[in-house]
């Protein structure tokens, strides 16, 4: 069975499809599936200063970050070149010193 989208107004998860539109029983909001597809295409990634990030940009870390599951600490001021933007919680894929990392854009600034 297909995964139903969450309500864009209240983020409710009990959404159902009513022939043409999606309906949220919690807030009574109705929308078409085409509206959701258009919103997903217009996602914009921003750094800690509010600058828009794009694939291929160079970024700098704005704080020390501990790497989960290891003793590595990425130091403030470390530069990551040629980033790739992805959907998800950690929305920036990059390589620092040849090692791949997934980082959150809120801890980066555009170089």
Automatic annotation (TrEMBL):
<dbReference type="InterPro" id="IPR013987">
    <property type="entry name" value="YjdM_N"/>
</dbReference>
<dbReference type="Pfam" id="PF08274">
    <property type="entry name" value="Zn_Ribbon_YjdM"/>
</dbReference>
<dbReference type="InterPro" id="IPR013988">
    <property type="entry name" value="YjdM_C"/>
</dbReference>
<comment type="similarity">
    <text>Belongs to the YjdM family.</text>
</comment>
<feature type="domain" description="Protein YjdM C-terminal">
    <location>
        <begin position="46"/>
        <end position="111"/>
    </location>
</feature>
<dbReference type="Pfam" id="PF03831">
    <property type="entry name" value="YjdM"/>
</dbReference>
<dbReference type="InterPro" id="IPR004624">
    <property type="entry name" value="YjdM"/>
</dbReference>
<feature type="domain" description="Protein YjdM N-terminal">
    <location>
        <begin position="3"/>
        <end position="32"/>
    </location>
</feature>
<protein>
    <submittedName>
        <fullName>PhnA protein</fullName>
    </submittedName>
</protein>
């Amino acid at each position: 069975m297909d995964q139903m989208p969450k309500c864009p107004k209240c983020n409710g998860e009990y959404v159902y499809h009513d022939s043409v539109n999606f309906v949220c029983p919690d807030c009574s909001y109705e929308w078409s599936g085409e509206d959701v597809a258009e919103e997903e295409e217009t996602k914009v990634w921003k750094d800690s200063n509010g600058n828009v990030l794009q694939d291929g940009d160079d970024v700098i870390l704005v704080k020390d970050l501990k790497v989960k599951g290891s003793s590595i600490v990425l130091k403030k001021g470390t530069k990551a070149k040629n980033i790739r933007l992805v959907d998800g919680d950690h929305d920036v894929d990059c390589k620092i010193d040849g090692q791949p990392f997934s980082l959150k854009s809120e801890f980066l600034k555009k170089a």
